[in-house]
Every structure is written in structure tokens, then in C-alpha cells.
Amino acid sequence: MNIESTEFGSITIDGEKLDHDIVIYPDKIGERKKEITKEKHGTSHKFTREEMEEYLNQVDTEKLRVILIGT
Questions:
Q1: Going by C-beta distance under 8 Å and a sequence separation of 6 or more, which residues neighbour residue 39?
Q2: pLDDT 10s digit of each residue in the chain, 71 long?
Q3: Residues 59/25, Cβ–Cβ less than 8 Å
Q4: What is the pLDDT of residue 71?
Q5: Are 40 and 52 in contact (CB under 8 A)?
Q6: CATH number of 3-56
């Protein structure tokens, strides 16, 4: 998986330009579940522990080396 570029509102990965919030796992790309944070704070411009736990439940945390959060 190659992150080619980022700019305001989008990211290009392996030639595909994505214009929505994403979560990059070691083996896949998923959509961000921002409704978890939006329900608590009324906005998705924040990031909650509950939302992070949702993503961590999708991976083997014993092998996790990096977490990168971009806003």
C-alpha cells in the first residue's frame, strides 16, 4: 500500500483518490466510523477513545507498531 499524496480533503493511495475519512489497516482500507465521535461531541472534528477502540478491535494489537491520526 503506497500513500502517494495528501491534500485538504483527500488522500491518494495506490492511484486511487479518496475524498472521505478513512482508516488504514495493515491489510485494508476502511471508512472512518465518525458517527461514534459525532454522537458524543456533535462533531466529527474530534476523536474519542471509543472510536479508537473500534479500530483497535480490528487488528492484532500485539503486532501494532504505528498509529497515525491525521485531521
A1: none
A2: 899 999 998 999 999 999 999 999 888 899 999 999 999 999 988 989 999 999 999 999 888 888 877 75
A3: yes
A4: 55
A5: no
A6: 3.40.1230.10
Give the pairing of strands 22-24 and 16-18: unpaired
SS3 62: coil
User: Are 25 and 33 a contacting pair, CB within 8 Å?
Assistant: no
Which pLDDT score is estimated for 14? 96
How much is the pLDDT for 69? Answer: 77
Between β-strands 10-13 and 22-24, what pairing exists: parallel, antiparallel or unpaired?
Answer: unpaired
Q: How far is CA 53 from the centre of its chain?
A: 12
- Show Cβ contacts of residue 25 under 8 Å, excluding neighbours closer than 6 positions: 55, 58, 59
CB 34 within 8 Å of CB 23 = no
Cα 50 to its chain centre, rounded Å, is 13
